[in-house]
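Below is the record:
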Amino acid sequence: MKILAIDTSNKPLSVAVMDNDQLLAQTTLTTHRKHAEFLMPVIEDLVKKADLTPTDLDRVVVADGPGSYTGIRMAVTAAKTIANTLGIELVTVSSLLNLALNVQRADVLINPIFDGRNQNMFTGLYRWNHGTIETVIEDQHISLEKWLPAISDYEQPILIIGDTASFEDDMRNVLHSRLLTANPLMGIPSAALLGQYGLAKSPVEDVDAVVPRYLRLTKAEADWKKLHPNEDTHNYVEKV
C-alpha cells in the first residue's frame, strides 16, 4: 500500500511517502509556518522522488489535530482534497498521538503537550502496551492547574514531550522525580511514524464529513457565544 502522510499541526511541517511500513521519502521543515505555501509543492516533490505518480497512492494519513487552527485546517483540507480527487482512503490520527509515537518506551506514561497559551495546553496521556500505543487520558484542551491533579496519582514516570518549557517547572513541583523530559528533537512530529501507524488503522467512511479536531472554540466561535449565550452552538461556524 502506497501511503501519503501529512502533519502540519503546529510549526513543523512533516510529509512522508511510504510503501506499507517502508519509508520512501520524507521532508520535515521547522523554520516557518507557511504551510499554505509549502505543503502542496512538498507533496508533489516527495511523490516524484519516491518514483511514484499521484495515482499510485492508496491512502492518505493526516494528523487532524489538535494544534494550530491554520495548521490542522491546511493538512485536513489537503488530505480530503487528495483523497476525494484520487478516490483513495483517508485515515485521521490525533496530532498528540503522533507526537507520542516518538517515544517508544513501555516504562513511562507519555504526555505530549502543545502550548495553548496562558498556562493552558492541548494534551493527553499515552502508554505502550505489548507494542501498541494506548490512550490513558483522552486528548483535551485544559489548564495546567486542572491537568496536574489528573496525572499526579499515576505511579509510573511521566515523560513530557513537545512544548514543555512553559510547564516543566510547575509539573516538577508536583511530580518531582517522576517527571521526565524528552530530548527536544523528539518533539518534532514524524510523518513516517504517522504513516506507519495509519497503515493499520481503518479509513474514515465519509471523507466529506472529516473536520479538524480543534478541541476548543475558535475566536469567532467564542465571540459568537458571548453575544448569543442562550442559543444552540452546534455547527454554527464552518471550520473547514
Residues 235-240 have pLDDT under 50 and may be disordered. The first strand starts at residue 2 and ends at 7. The chain has seven helices and ten strands.
